[in-house]
Amino acid sequence: MIDHISYWLWQIRCKNTTLCSSRGTRVIVTDLNSNNQTDFVLSSRAFMAMANKGMGQDVLKHGILDVEYKRVPCEYKNQNLAVRVEESSKKPNYLAIKLLYQGGQTEVVAMDVAKVGSSNWGFMSRNHGAVWDTDRVPAGALQFRFVVTAGFDGKWIWAQKVLPEDWKPGMTYDSGVQITDIAQEGCSPCDDGVWK
């Protein structure tokens, strides 16, 4: 089951070997419907990327295909995790942010915010998808700490001096940290973990 998605990278391929290549394509999942019972809805470009050479239009004509998928690590070379202040943010009382360029194969499961230099942390709530928000915004420049999971265990990551005192909705700020952890997930039942 997929729960509380932010941005995850998946390798997807269709099971019809006549139409589709064995390598498939990579897609970023950005949201999930509320009951965790959904299909991958792909753009026509991603759909055709699964096809064998010259079979793209044939794949599109099918519209629905049986697929297999696995989660793969995101790679953002020379790119730190970034914090985008959502347009719905209203200084000084409400802050909504979205994390961008989350590398590795991890999930942020908790987030706190504090004034830079303070140890008075306030929690943020996952609003929807990858958006985190709070209506208790500290005054001044802001720092964040995240609980990041990579399979079974979680760890704290601190991002100091992320938002300046004069942060603005619509702007993106560098966190100064990179996440590169790879998930160590169990499965039941499992094959050898490699596509056949």
From TrEMBL:
Its main location: secreted. One of its GO terms (cellular component) is plant-type cell wall. Residues 93-175 form the Expansin-like CBD domain. Belongs to the expansin family. GO terms for biological process: anatomical structure morphogenesis. This is Expansin-like A2. Keywords: Secreted. It comes from the Eukaryota. Residues 10-79 form the Expansin-like EG45 domain. PROSITE patterns: EXPANSIN_CBD, EXPANSIN_EG45. Pfam families: Expansin_C (PF01357). It is found in: Secreted.
